Amino acid sequence: MSVTVDAAPRRPLVRWLVFATVVLAMLMHAIDQTSVATALSAMQADLGASLAWMGWTITIYSVGQILILPFAGPLGDRFGARRVYLVAVAAFTLMSVLCGLSSGTVELIIGRFLQGLAGGVLLPVATAIVSAEFGPDRDRAIALFSTAFPIGAVLGPLAGGLILTFASWREIFFVNVPVGILLVCLGRALIRETPRAAMGGVDLVGVGWLTALLLSGMIAITRIGSFGEGWTGPASVVVAGAVALVAGRFLLRHLHRHPDPIIPPRLLTGHSLGVMNVMNVLFGAAVIGFSALLPHYAQIRYGMSPIASGGLLTVRAVFMIVVSAVAVGLLRRLGHRPLLLAGMAAITVALVLIALPPVHSGPEVWLSLGAAVMGLGMGFASPSSANAGMHLVPEQAAAVSGLRVLFRQAGAIVAVSLVTAASSAAADPAAANTVAFLALAVVMGGAGALAMRIPNQRGRW
Fold it and tell me: What is the pLDDT of residues 35-76, one digit of tens each?
């Protein structure tokens, strides 16, 4: 978004109230994103759905965020960040009600998709609001603002576990309602409108082909578990897979022909970015897939409670936050490649530990160890991987950052869809999940091999 005009300064208390308001909105988004992972088993039992389709409650949320990203900035420029922010918060709250009231899997999946759309709008417009409010101090304010997601990663699994311990999975969504109403009221009272600009063109055709590719691919993967249903199972996989191939082909052709495509082709393969993009797909499959699947795995293999299984993600998040601070301090001295390789090695070890049976300890301690090693690896790999892509084309850092999110979420969508489909079809879902974590370790090893080909960069860029 293009918010470059500084608004007239206001009293520090008001500015920080505005800051707290938008941070609370991002926390609501982040906590909802991570807490749902703890409720997969509960939702599956209550709605009577297969795990393969219940996994869509996680993946479809990511699809919504991916698809709305190209629109979020232009919408804020055209209608004003304040107005778009208020609509997004209200829509997120309303969709939370729809999710909580869902009587079937289809309703829940639709609600989660619409929630993902609203959540995907929040980040760019909230960033624009903070930038306009703090003027010359925007760099520090935005840096502080970016801590909302790590904090949400700590609180979300605990919140989901606590809610499931004392209530049902529906309250995970209903708890957003009073928070959302409060945020709309505070936003209307405190947030000023940002300067508006002409709305740039949005590649609607590209978004359409990307939507078709993601949804058909997810359907094809999900239907793999239906091979025992006669000819309709394999036929549905073939049809959905064919649609995905056609959509992918037309998307690539469109990207090379459109003057301002949703994904610039030069950022797909040029300047070693092709290696980075493939690495990000594999990284997202292993790391985000781990986060989405670990609570369910702990519950079905070891019978852990929702609060204990959700706490594993909190352990991971705490280690990630602490180690990230160390990694940021080492980036200029060592460059990003050594830190990236060290982080990926630790992530691979963590995935293997999670898959192995506990050694001289109970499952809670053993899985906590694996989660801690995963957090350590993510702490080294996340800051370094962000720099690894952006330093290649620093003049297009924002676009590269957006692509990193897109490719990682795409990898996560494939991983979660495959694992939930395989678990749903398996006679022993716990054993299937165990094999899945070992497979993710192999995927992470492949990402590490690609990372060795990325040019290193020390110092400033």
Answer: 888 888 888 888 888 777 888 888 888 888 878 877 777 777
Please tell me what DSSP assigns to residue 394: G
Q: What angle separates helix 363-390 from helix 336-355, to the nearest 10 degrees?
A: 150
Assess whether pLDDT exceeds 90 at residue 222: no
Name all contacts of 301-305 with Cβ < 8 Å and 24+ positions apart: 301/363, 301/430, 301/433, 301/434, 302/363, 302/364, 302/367, 304/363, 304/364, 304/367, 305/161, 305/165
Distances 447 to 221, 293, 417 between C-alpha atoms, Å: 22, 20, 20
Fold of 1-199: Growth Hormone; Chain: A; (1.20.1250)
Angle among Cα 224, 226, 228 to the nearest 5 degrees reads 120
Percent of the chain with pLDDT over 90: 22
Please tell me which residue, 106 or 324, carries the higher pLDDT value.
106
Under CATH, what is the fold of the domain 266-461?
Growth Hormone; Chain: A; (1.20.1250)
Closest CA to 256 of 269, 271, 243: 269
* Domain boundaries along the sequence of the chain: 1-199, 204-261, 266-461
266-461 has the same fold as 1-199: yes
